């Protein structure tokens, strides 16, 4: 599997877990993460973030999105 496919799969998994945690649809979670820079964070920090457990990743995303104006 290519590196790009691994990154896409990881991003999809992060969005799905974020949606589950916040009781959102996958589309709502993606829009929220995109708007408040969570998707960019995942892409830019893949090398580190993919080695962490989802609890830590979701915590990182929550902190980042709140810093960028998110309210979840």
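-> sequence recovered:
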């Amino acid at each position: 599997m290519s590196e790009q496919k691994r990154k896409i799969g990881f991003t999809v998994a992060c969005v799905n877990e974020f949606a589950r945690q916040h009781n959102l649809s996958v589309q709502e979670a993606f829009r929220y993460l995109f708007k408040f820079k969570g998707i960019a964070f995942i892409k830019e920090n893949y090398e580190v973030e993919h080695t962490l457990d989802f609890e830590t990743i979701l915590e990182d995303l929550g902190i980042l999105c709140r810093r960028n104006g998110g309210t979840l």
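The mean pLDDT is 95.
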